[in-house]
Amino acid sequence: MKINKQDIIQIINNTLYDMLGYNITQALYFHICKITNKSMSELSNDLNSLMFGIQEIFKDASKFIFDEIKKRIEVTYNIKMEGEDFLKWLNDITS
Question: Could you tell me how many helices (H) and strands (E) the chain has, helices first?
Fold first, then answer.
């Protein structure tokens, strides 16, 4: 099963807003844009850069955000993650 990257990015956005709130999420996106040298509009279409930015900012703590994103994807699409590497799994399921 392949899932549209835009749908995954929307799940990521919703997860960040729910976990961090609006203002912190906006600040997070500002810093991700700086880290990746991408504009907000470019970032909204670039799943790899978005995930890279989250990982760079939160380091090991990004696991908690990724776990929540994974749960929401699994529930939304009724699928289960195979293996331990979340980022590889995410790339495998997106089109």
Answer: 6, 0
